[in-house]
Amino acid sequence: MLKLIFIPIAYLLGSIPFGYLLVKWAKGLDVRTQGSGNIGMTNVWRVAGAGWGIATLVLDISKGALAVWLAQHFDSSDGFLEVLCGLAALLGNIFSVFLKFKGGKGIGVSVGVFFTLLPLESAAGLAAFILAVAVTRMISAGSLLGVTTMALLTLHLEKGLNWFSGLSLLAMLLIWWTHRQNIQRILKGTENKIGKKA
Questions:
Q1: Pick from 56, 110, 128, 175: CA 20 to 30 A from residue 151's CA?
Q2: What count of other Cβ atoms lies within 10 Å of the Cβ of residue 113?
Q3: How do the domains of the chain map onto residue ranges?
Q4: Closest to 113 in 3D by CA, of 166, 152, 67
Q5: Which of these, 137, 140, 10, lies nearest to 73 by C-alpha position?
């Protein structure tokens, strides 16, 4: 039972709003009032520059990976604790306790969680992300295709539902939900594209 303490720790790790903190420190701005209002890499990049956007992504990936690594380090049984900690970190990112239960879109932390849990499936998702961005020039389209590819491949390789495929499908649904406004803009043809001037 003592190991269950890692679940709230994972949630708190996921809740750390690195994009918000970095922009506040670097520019004195609340990134939630700038650009798209999101605290993730893409909006931080727009508001504070490439370096801060990349730093946000690296830190978001790291907190997801750390949440799962801690569970793996202290419990290597059946993967159940790792899955719960991965989910807790993802929920912390989307519903941050430090930002009144609002947060990011879950991409960076998902990369950390799933590359730690499911490296092969995540690599396929990354390839799909790169392909989609290359074709559409839309980060959101790449994110949606990447997480969907990862989830469906996990479901296939795990031969049905288990802790890992269940987490990947839940993450896919959460990320599609957090990108609902992006999806509307994609359908309308108004979504931001790489290289497009404001």
A1: 56
A2: 33
A3: 1-117, 119-198
A4: 67
A5: 10
For the ranges 74-78, 98-102, 165-169, the lowest mean pLDDT is seen at 74-78
169 contacts 100 by C-beta, under 8 angstroms: no
| DSSP summary character for residue 5 | G
Task: Count the alpha carbons within 13 Å of 178 in the hemisphere toward its beta carbon.
Answer: 27
Q: Does the structure show a pLDDT above 70 at 198? A: no
Contacts 24+ apart (CB under 8 A), 78-83: 78/163, 79/117, 79/163, 79/164, 80/163, 81/3, 81/4, 81/6, 81/7, 82/116, 82/117, 83/117, 83/163, 83/164, 83/166, 83/167
Least confident of 26-40, 43-57, 73-87, 99-113: 73-87
CA 93/CA 99 separation, integer angstroms: 10
Q: Tell me, what amino acid is at 190? A: T
Q: Of the candidates 99, 94, 125, which has an alpha carbon nearest to the alpha carbon of residue 109? A: 94
Report whether 39 contacts 94 (CB < 8 A).
no
> What is the Cα–Cα distance from 99 to 145, expressed in whole angstroms?
28
